[in-house]
Amino acid sequence: MTRLAPALLLAVAVSFTMRAATNSSALDLARQLNRAFVEVAESVSPSVVVIRVANKPGKLPFDDDENPFWDLLPKGMPEEFRKHFKDELEKRRKEEEEESKSSTPSFDGKGSGVIIQEDGYILTNFHVVEDAVKIEVRLRDRRRFTATLHGKDPQSDLAVLKINATNLPAAKLGDSDAVRVGEFAVAIGAPFEFDYSVTFGHISAKGRSQVVPSRGFQSQGATMDQDFLQTDASINPGNSGGPLVNLYGEVIGINTLIRGLRTGIGFAVPVNLAKVVSENLIKNGKFPRLWLGIGIRGLREDDEAEEKVDGVEDGVLVTSIQENGPASKSDLKRRDVIIAVDGKSVVTSAQLRNEVRRKQAGKAVTLEIIRQSKPMKIKVHPEEWPESKEPKSKGE
Question: Which is catalytic among the residues 153, 157, 225, 336?
Answer without folding.
Answer: 157
